[in-house]
Amino acid sequence: MQHDHEGRDRVVYYQSRQLKPVERNYPVHDEELLAMKYALAKVRVYLLGSGPFVDYTDHASLRTAVKSPHISQQVVRWLSFFAEYDFRVEYKPGRLNIVADALSRRPDYAGKTADANRIGVERVSAPSSSLIDDVKATYASDADAK
């Protein structure tokens, strides 16, 4: 975020992506940390050495999750990555972070399923019975097919 001339917050950058199948099994706080790592990596060139910045999240437990005595080796690696940056994490409830919350629920990221009631059938194509009979007869007389 950046402040405009009236002191209002203005978003500088949005980032979003789908979770990979294995990432969907992560605990929620790990998914949030992964999202933060992904976003920081995308804008790394702009943030490193730029001074302190704030990462807003709608997941309050991120502020304390990293202080847990029982964190995975993967999270330890992510924390090492985060240590390169000068930032703090601030909680901002989803209801106040409307645009980012909406981006995380993009309908085009939902599973693509067809509605059977909306599918129209234009033509049904099936092999003719004479073709099936010809194939059966050919197999019966073919030495390699036996």
From TrEMBL:
Domain of life: Eukaryota
Keyword Hydrolase: yes
Domain Reverse transcriptase RNase H-like span(s) in chain numbering: 1-85
Keyword Transmembrane assigned: no
Alphabetical keyword list: Endonuclease, Hydrolase, Nuclease, Nucleotidyltransferase, RNA-directed DNA polymerase, Transferase
GO molecular function, one term: RNA-directed DNA polymerase activity
Pfam family, one: RT_RNaseH
Cited PANTHER family: ENZYMATIC POLYPROTEIN-RELATED, REVERSE TRANSCRIPTASE_RETROTRANSPOSON-DERIVED PROTEIN RNASE H-LIKE DOMAIN-CONTAINING PROTEIN
Name recorded for this polypeptide: Reverse transcriptase RNase H-like domain-containing protein
Gene source species: Phytophthora cactorum
